[in-house]
Amino acid sequence: WQSSLAVQGQLDWQDLPWQRLWPQLDALDWRLRRLQGPFSYQDGRYQGELHAEADGPAGPFTLHSPFAGDLQRVQLADVRLQAGRGQASGRLELNLGAQAGWSTHLQLRDIDPAYWQAGLPGRIAGSLHSEGQWQPALQGRLVVDLHGQVRQQPLRWQATLQAQGELWSLAPLQLQLGDNRIDGQASLGSGQRLAGELRWKL
User: Fold this and answer.
1) pLDDT over threshold 60, residue 192
2) What is the pLDDT of residue 135?
3) Residues contacting residue 48 through CB under 8 Å, at least 6 positions apart
4) Residue 112's closest CA among 103, 104, 123?
5) What whole-number distance in Å separates Cα of residue 108 and Cα of residue 73?
6) pTM, whole model, 2 decimals?
7) CA atoms within a 13 Å half-sphere pointing along the CA-CB vector of 127
8) Residue 193 backbone phi and psi in degrees, to 5
9) CB atoms within 10 A of CB 179
């Protein structure tokens, strides 16, 4: 005979006190008002949807994504964030197996940082991409390409951070906010040796 476990349900959690669960993030000035969505599980695989509603310093925002996976991985294939007229979309995949790792790509359009941090009004667009694995040794890459304005100052941020075990490299780095500018490259090798060249105008 054959048996299998099958579960279906509906998540509906209101006023989630996430600051109590992660007190180190208590300084963030926003509140998760509601988290809901259907889910199902059968034969080691699960799928569903998540819809979150939250309030930040600049107003309410929402996050929605379907999810699917098993005991080895979880995938959020269509993440969508709406904050006023700002939007972010992309995907996230986590590998929970022996070679634990991640892969994510986000595209931003007219995102206002003040929805999460009061005192930082602006508009930011661009992309964030990261992928890598934790086991058997850390290997990863983060690519940032953002532009817009913050506090009525033009912003430009381009950077590529790579990690391979104990070896870290940041190249290129270009960060500009208003008339302030930092650019260059840096690396951190075994034995915590730091090398590089940075140029700044403040």
Assistant:
1) yes
2) 80
3) 11, 37, 38, 39, 40, 66, 67, 68
4) 123
5) 25
6) 0.86
7) 9
8) -85, 125
9) 9
20: pLDDT strictly greater than 80: no
List residues bridging with 60 in a β-sheet. 55
Question: Which two tokens mark 140?
Answer: 């990863």
**Least-confidence region, from 12-16, 51-55, 93-97:** 12-16
Tokens of residue 152, six digits: 């009525």
The pLDDT value given to residue 23: 65
Q: Which residue has the tokens 């941020």?
A: 157
CA dihedral 174→152→129→81, nearest 10 degrees, is 180
